Amino acid sequence: MGEKAKFNDRRFTVNADVFYVKWHNIQQLIVLSCGYPYNTNVGQAKAYGPELEMAAKLTDSITADLSAAYTQSYISEPKNTPDFRSLQEHGSPTFRSTRAMSP
Predict the structure, then answer these.
(1) Mean pLDDT for each 10-residue chunk of the chain (103 residues)?
(2) In the chain, at which residue ranges do the beta strands (DSSP E only) sit?
(3) Would you say 40 and 28 are in contact if contact means Cβ atoms under 8 Å apart?
(4) Measured CA distances, 52 to 1, 9, 87 (Å)
(5) Distance between CA atoms of 100 and 77, rounded to whole angstroms?
């Protein structure tokens, strides 16, 4: 669910949303204690959070962009896996942000 809005003759834009995702039968790379990696079905997972993007046209030739997102993700019903529940431990960042200036 989200919203996109443009203001001040389209010189300022805001995109915002919240999300909730349920994955079924997801694949995950597991590295065994001996160092051998393999892909396996780890079961069900969930992810949710908000996202926000803003862009401002500062001059006719310069635009500033800012974005941020918070994601909480976890394995909700583990299957065929070692004891872990957090997808953050396996490469999924909790907080992301970007800043940019472009001509």
Answers:
(1) 94 96 85 84 88 96 96 80 53 84 89
(2) 2-7, 12-31, 37-57, 63-70, 72-78, 95-102
(3) yes
(4) 12, 20, 22
(5) 39
CB atoms within 10 A of CB 65: 14
Distances from the Cα of 36 to the Cα of 30, 39, 44, 79, 84, angstroms: 8, 10, 24, 19, 18
- Taking the complete model, does pTM exceed 0.90, yes or no? no
**Residues 43, 1: contact at Cβ < 8 Å?**
no
- The residue range of the domain holding 56 is 2-102
**Quick one: pLDDT at residue 19?**
95
The total number of structural domains that make up the chain? 1
